[in-house]
Fold this protein.
Amino acid sequence: MLSKIDANKFHTLIEINYLLNSNYKDINSLLSRIMESATRLSDAEASSLLLMDKEKNELYFEVALGEKGIDVKKYTVKLGEGIAGWVAQNNKSLIVNDAANDKRHLSNIGEEINFACKTIMAVPMRIKDECIGVLELLNKKDEQSAVKGFTQEDVEWLEIFANQAALAIVNAKNMEASLNEIKKLQDKISNNHYHAMIIKSPCTLEKLEIIDKVAKTDSSVLLLGESGVGKELFAEQIHLRSSRVNAPFVRVNCAALPEGLLESELFGHVKGAFTSAIAHRQGRFEMADGGTIFLDEIGDLPLSLQAKILRVIQEKKFEKLGSDQTIAVNVRIVAATNKDIEELVQNGEFRQDLFYRLNVFPVYIPPLRQRPEDTIELAQFFLKNFMKETKKNFEGFSQDALDSLLSYSWPGNIRELQNCIERACVIGRNKLINTEDLFFKTNKSPDTDTAAVDDIHDLKIAINIFKTNYIRKILEENNWNQTETAKALAIQRTYLSRLIKELKINNP
Ligand SMILES: Nc1ncnc2c1ncn2[C@@H]1O[C@H](COP(=O)(O)OP(=O)(O)OP(=O)(O)O)[C@@H](O)[C@H]1O
Ligand SMILES: [Mg+2]
């Protein structure tokens, strides 16, 4: 142990410790700082910090201070060669106070750069007992000292500095690993952006439960439902709830590209496969290996490609365009369509065998008009989002606006609701979004589809839908004569008139 504490050395150590805990980013300047302190405090002429290159089994100069520091940096030292090589190999500190006569000392570097090495002290830098590099101090300036060369106490101090340097390297490595991980996750988010899914209606919650169960298997899933109901979000949930979650989720819109381009998009091509194929290209199936491929608008898939997709599903194999080399993949298939796919099969526009393969697990996503709880929740969610975007502030929806949202039939489903709220957010002038702020695509009256009532679990909404249907039916029977209708309904004419207004029943 150190026999006495030198105040100067002690303060330097505290200073380095502070730097170690506050500055991980510029590792080289931190290591240089450690070496400068070690050199100054040991009264050495020059010093080096060498790091181990495990693959090459050699040490390279990370820091080299002193008159010839720059010159020495181009050299590397084999493990076992020279003093530093000996220290690295033996994982032991060493003092050589008569370098000229020590067989372990390699004089060639010194001769080449014209630097005479007389005394040397070198210590290993260790991480968990493994030597990762060497600190080396050269030529003790000991003109006035009675003792010539480096002492045991010098070595003990240098070992403390070596620990500090090793810590700095561990910190920097951890920092680099964390930054890489963050980068990877950021890439994942930007390439694989998943949507926040808002769900509150019992009928959609039930679908999510089904999805959760099927997600755990490798079965193909066919998502059915009108445009804009959220099929893509359900597809994302299948992937996110599956064991493939950390592998890619690759989306392909089968309706977005012409046949030839779609084929190369799906299966990739080799250079020269066709005129514009100037380089090899990986297809979506290959990218999705280990994960999930989402084939959106599968109803629009050209017949020629249907046969190829069928083969991937059955054999999990395919060839790139222009190549006869077979590629094997492990991909889970989720497909979606808003078309009546069974009708397409009947008309010969969709292969029956492919339909059966995809239809292993069909899931029908109900339209928004059958999801009143979702409608309100989604409207609030979109309002919050658009408020952030437009920097406007609303307290919410007026009761009237909520009633209108619930009574509209939403032919464009959630996509249409999203647009409607966006417009309202731009137009709205008051604290609450009012009915006047909500522009509907068509001026359709409340949903009169009786089938919808079956799926609605809120009694008030169900009663209103029933009332609307029933009053409209009696009005029609009485040629929209309100006096006759009131009589038929056994209610006051004024009450009927109020109901017609409240329920927004229009004479088409
Ligand atoms: N439950 C939900 N929560 C939040 N946003 C949703 C939800 N469902 C759908 N959306 C949003 O509504 C829009 C339409 O959804 P999506 O694209 O999944 O519909 P789709 O059924 O695939 O329609 P299409 O058949 O037209 O492709 C998207 O912007 C999506 O983010
Ligand atoms: Mg879609």
